Amino acid sequence: MKKNYYTQMSNQYIFSLFNSMKKRKSNRFKNHHHTDIELGLMLKGKGEYILNNVKYTADEGDLFIARSNETHCIPTISTEALVAFNVQLSPFFLWNICSDYIPPNKIQALINPDIPITNKLHDPEIIHCMKTISTLMESEDTTALYTIRSLVVKLITLVSEKADISDIALTPPVKHLDDIQKSIGYIRRNYSKPINLDNMAKNAAMSPSYFSKIFRMVTGVSPYNYLMTIRIEKAVESLKTTNKTIMEIALECGFQSITSFNKAFKNSVGCTPSEIRNEI
Fold first, then answer.
1. pTM recorded for the entire structure
2. Which of 68, 148, 252, 264 places its Cα 20 to 30 Å from the Cα of 193?
């Protein structure tokens, strides 16, 4: 079960934790990407992991870093199952909380897919930290929440230390972080409506061009790609959890026609909405 965590005072979403398990399969390519940064630790099993069209072997103890909008999938699992523990991090968490402990250029490298990093790691200290977080996630002890928060910061610090990006100096103006967060909230509330760049920029009190620049620095993707990713995420969720028709889902997720929905869905996920639904 996926658990979402929020700031204590403002109730702002900061990260999610969840375990995943996939059964044996071969050459089943279904792309996946999201607005959050994802750290996926392989706990058991073997398979293939494809990230941005680069193929990796996936084995116990391997950690994969998928940044905002980086396409990834596990097409082949050679054992009975592949079990993983996943941490998904919001840009808000990195810029507003982790920035007290991690240099801004390293945060930028963990967010921006245009900055080259090593997307696969195998480090004993990182493995131990993630396994501890996974164990604490199941605890009913009220103090576990605070330990989890501190360990996630430690985890990001450990991962960021592996990034060799001393020549990167892209840091968004601090004064605009709250403005971008407001625009993200606006997008998430209104993704089903015909919103555009002008709407988003106005909500952040910036010009469209300046807003696009700062938004990409904070989130790692353009405002349009962020909006489309949210729409596809919501569509996948509805396909898996409701009996609504594909047309109904397309309209509810902000698409004006079934044709535009199918095209965007296939480009993002790698298969059609019908194929996702038929698997359930």
1. 0.84
2. 68
